[in-house]
Amino acid sequence: MKQNIKQELKKILSILFDTVELAVLALAIVVPIRYFIFQPFVVSGNSMHPNFEHKDYLLIDEISFRFNEPERGEVVVFKAPQRVSTNYIKRIIGLPNEVIEISDGKIFISSASGEKEALDESKYLPDGLITSGEMTIALKQDEYFVLGDNRLFSSDSRSWGVLPRQNIVGKVFFRALPVNSLAFIENPVYIFDPIEP
Q1: What is the pLDDT, as a whole number, of residue 18?
Q2: pLDDT tens across 143-173, in order?
Q3: Is there a single domain that holds both residue 69 and residue 14?
Q4: 8 A C-beta contact, residue 131 and residue 147
Q5: Fewest beta carbons within 10 Å, which of 100, 173, 175, 182?
Q6: 120 and 176 share one domain
Q7: What Cα–Cα distance (Å) separates residue 190 from each residue in 35, 57, 83, 94?
Q8: Residues 27 and 77 in one domain
Q9: What confidence tens digit (pLDDT) does each residue in 40-77 have?
Q10: Do 29 and 54 have their domain in common?
């Protein structure tokens, strides 16, 4: 009888030890991934409509920008310059050392060499959508100009100014929820096509 109790106790302790070992191993893998590589983000509001909706559950790639600079068209999550305790989601429009001009509902970009182009946003915005506001802003080193895709209802660089590079948390790379919208998020590729003078 005592032998049976000892065997059962050993079995329970062995299962308990295996469970603890598995939990520690899982934490050793999951915690670094969660805090240093990928981070979840839930969209709040409609500033990125029609591409991202309220309550979309996204995964943010936090490691790519340690090796590469952010690119035009990428959707990023960042600490809001006017309220760093709040994270925003917007699309990168202007890159460091460019001049961004919004005029007649269109966006124009002048490169560091002075060449100017009208930004083609047809890959991610519906036809006929205009960008409200009239402004010109010169970006310095490590400054970005970001806009929400829902141009009529977005708090973005038009209202609070440039986005410092240090505020960028990461780029959106996967939509996990809703299930019917599961998708990897690709960055539209731009070719600089200067406007003829």
Answers
A1: 65
A2: 999 999 999 899 999 999 999 999 999 999 8
A3: no
A4: yes
A5: 182
A6: yes
A7: 31, 27, 31, 12
A8: no
A9: 888 999 999 999 999 999 989 888 888 899 999 999 99
A10: no
Half-sphere exposure of 26 (CA within 13 A, CB side): 6
17 and 49 belong to one structural domain: no
Q: For residue 197, say if its preceding peptide bond is cis, omega within 30 degrees of 0.
A: no
Q: Which of 65, 93, 95 is nearest to 188 (CA)?
A: 93
- Of 144, 162, 160, 158, which Cα lies nearest the Cα of 94? 144
For residues 114 and 67, membership in a common domain is answered with yes
- Residue written as tokens 């059962």? 8
The answer to whether position 75 is within a domain reads yes
**Phi, psi at 106, each rounded to 5°:** -115, 160
Number of domains observed in the structure of the chain: 2
Residue ranges making up the domain that contains 25: 1-39
Contact criterion met (CB below 8 Å) for 184 and 174: yes
Cα–Cα dist 92/75, whole Å? 6
Q: Report DSSP state, residue 156.
A: S
Indicate whether 53 and 104 sit together in one domain: yes
Q: Are residues 1 and 82 located together in one domain of the fold?
A: no
**37 class by beta-carbon count within 10 Å (0-12 exposed, 13-18 middle, 19+ buried):** middle
